[in-house]
Amino acid sequence: MKLSPFIFRRWLVTLAGMAVWLALYLGLAPASRWLTYDLLRLEPGRHLSAAVEFFVFETPKVLLLLTIVVFAVGIVRSYFTPERTRRMLAGRRESTGNVLAALLGVVTPFCSCSAVPLFIGFVTAGVPLGVTFSFLISAPMVNEIALVLLFGLFGWKVAALYLGTGLVIAIVAGWIIGRLRLERHVEDWVYATTSEANGATDERLDFAARVAAGREAVRDIVGRVWPFVVAGIAVGAGIHGYVPENFMASIMGRDAWWSVPLAVLIGVPMYSNAAGIIPIVQALLGKGAALGTVLAFMMSVIGLSLPEAIILRQVLKLPLLLVFFGVVALGIMVVGFLFNALL
Prior knowledge:
- The protein has 343 residues and is mainly alpha-helical.
- 76% of the residues lie in helices and 0% in strands.
- The chain has helices at residues 5-26, 28-39, 47-77, 82-89, 94-107, 115-124, 129-141, 144-154, 156-179, 188-191, 207-242, 245-252, 259-267, 274-286, 291-303, 306-312, 318-342.
């Protein structure tokens, strides 16, 4: 099949961009040392120089990782529209649906602002309440951007722990909510809503169009989240350069039994996205905080945000909203205690 000149140029630009990305990524370490100690002439071993080197190295590193991840995820997401996801889950047995919903939540577009329309669409399409919650928990918590950033910064073991525990929380929490039979605590108007997308069809795209969707995702998502990334790295740089290791270990170490519940409580009002919280996680771990405590903190920030609670209150009565938050928070704390005990 012969490529048109337009498609050929688009592929050429994409390949050239990937080559530039690789060159920039490989040159980050020497560039950050040169900028910190040669250009700015900061003295090695000082708090300020450590903070500055962390900031100038991690900022482009995380942004570069974020760009390539969002590009790849944009291509993957073109195959998993919310309408297709809803049809895949409708009519499934509940236990099977919980697992499938949690897995689909990782790759399906989701943010707090879309919680209400997704919830309405799932419920009115016949998806069981517990299965719906498995999806709503997994989609923000098991964030594909966070997964790849964790892999790039900490290796596959930490990334696998995050993926596995997040999926288990989503599956088990959704199953528990399903067993409690709380459908009566969904706002009455939700069941009266007609699902307008039941007859929607998915647009069939060729691969060039999906690559274009990946580039559009980079422009959209990276363009929106980069200030959070820079702010998160700035906080992480301050922790890295100035916070004593003994202090951080004392309040977030595995020996402090109350550190995990406290981390979850602190994380809920600290609304952030995955890209913004990862640099803080990196700095906390580097200062001696326990992995389980930091993982609980990160999951609570991503998966139990206060804005999401406010939005979901439009479709959930207060008892169901409290059960949702309580079950997920309990699951996150169990994960934190478990990994602090085992690792």
